[in-house]
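Format notes (please read before filing issues)

Several people have asked whether sequences and structure tokens are stored in separate files. They are not. Every record keeps both together, in the order shown below: the sequence lines, then the token lines. Line labels are part of the format and must not be stripped during preprocessing.
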Amino acid sequence: MPTTLPLLLVPLLLLGGPRSVQETPEAARARSELEATLAREGVLLDRERGVIGISASVLVKNELLEYLLVAPNGQAHESLFLTQVRPSLVNAAMLLTGVEPGRNAHFEPDGAGPDGRPRRRVYPPSGDGFLLYAAWREGEETFLYRVEDLVRNLESGRALRRQRWVYLGSRFAPPMPGKPEAFLADIEGNLVNLSFFFQGNTLLTAAAEECESQSIWAANEWLLPPSGEPVRLFFARRPLERLEPAWVEGLPQARSSEGDAPR
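Then the structure lines:
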């Protein structure tokens, strides 16, 4: 049976919020129930280390990218990775790490242009969030990359600049008559955007200034397994120097790209 939405709000209800030092017995039971649900749904959560892991697969390698991670009902034609894990479950795990919502990209007035018309300046996202990693195994070899290394900037010729991906936490659509509130990341199926989107419906957003562009991002195909191959994505509050042995054991085996023609 799918996890009900109220259960996914438990992290917000732990008296005092994510930074609370003490929990009531009721809150502790609710948190324990949620963590058990996440484990059953394939979401690795290490609260002590501030790390979340989910299964995903390589998706788009031969087209422009606007998203880093989507669900099957999301923008699958322009995302590097695909996951079967519900966005609201990932969001619940993120809240349990104590992350605080940041600020999405936004416009502010910036004087007038030569023609006298008002100009607007784009300010990139800012605030708390996660460092993102992708890992998999090919035979006995373990691969671990910052996800930025797997995205190339067609304009500069370099990989995406490393950054902390800002937590937005999506939002809820106003309830329809006779229906509960709907979590927009579940409805739209988009978890992590690579280019700026001002609606704020994803869980995480890129924050580098150059991500204002929607037409310069592509997969760094020479580092990735073929499309459709499995990987493990990690969301970390602090830099990951290495993976824990148990995490390595749980990494998927991906088919080698050796000898593949560029896609």
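For reference, the curators noted about this record: The radius of gyration is 19 Å. Residues 25-40 form the longest helix (16 residues).
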